[in-house]
Description:
This protein is of the alpha/beta class.
Amino acid sequence: MPPALRVCDFSNNKLSKFYFGMPYLSILNLRNNSLGAYLSSERYTNSTMIELKEIDLSLNLIQDLSFNIFHGHVHAVKINLSHNRLTDITFDLSHLVSLKRLDLSYNNISGISSQTSMDTLHKLSKTTKLKIDLSNNLLKCKCQNLRFLQWIDANLDLLIHADKYTCQLDNNNIVQLTNVHIIVIQLVKECASYTTLIICIATGIITACIILFGGLMFRFRWRLRYLYYMTRHKYNVFKSIQSSNTYKYDAFISYANEETDFVVNEVIPHLERDENLKLCVHQRDFAPGEEITQNITNGIHQSRRTICIVTQSFLDSYYCIFELNMARMESIYSRDDKNILFFVFYEQLRPKDLPLVILELVQRQLYIEYPNDEQGNVVFWAKMKETLVSM
Length: 391
């Protein structure tokens, strides 16, 4: 083709591909061809700057256009994309700085989803007096299209043949878009309530899940903590200990700091020195550098029994209650539900001051009171030895 050609008309053919290299072409008519599939990913020219002023791509079965198809079209004033199958504007409009007419009539456009495209069209309407024809498209008057309808309401002077615009409501009824402002106001109210409902339902579901999860976590909190600390420990070592039914300690002694003198001066001498028993005492036997909770779990697991020196200080101590519950979990999940807990009441406590778990074990006679007198002490320590060796 001659490079100086100004008008090129290939309308009413069966072209499925088209490419030109005429730098001075002013009018390109490709009406009524079959270029839809080709133009969805390709351009009809690779020139970065062309002289085209009018382009007719109507009746080409176009469903989508490549994003950069109009790059370099700085002189284009009229583009006809009517009678195609476009559903949205997905191509770049930023190079069409001279555009005065964009014909998108007789397509399948339900709205313009890109805010950038809407902003560009609005800007062109102020600089080039651009007019757009969206007639005979079935627009959607729905919440997801509200932004586009608000754009139409603000840019009515940009649109031509507005009396032919129709809009499909949520109930699928078709209405004339003669008073878009009223429709926008109605949709704003409906969409706001709809959004509020979604938020409320979502919040309710999330809250219910959190409450349920929190309830389950609280219900099984000691089991979960026990399993966590047991998993962290060297499982194979403990497995061999359990399988051979041997323990490193005869008893784990759980006590508050206020009863340290009693443990050091009474419990350890009577049970270790006189009875040749091995006790796990935190201030002496815990591994340095290990977390205290891990030390507690390890000590209980390696001990035949757990002896709790119960005082008010014991009940007020976080770690004493932790040791009590870890011993309960140990008896349930590692000792076939065989109780390993035994209470020594070192001071008088009212039943109402005791936790339910302690009261339950007290009712099963799994306790002894410290007499704090010479004759009673002999019986007390004999009972302690009997308890520890009977396991």
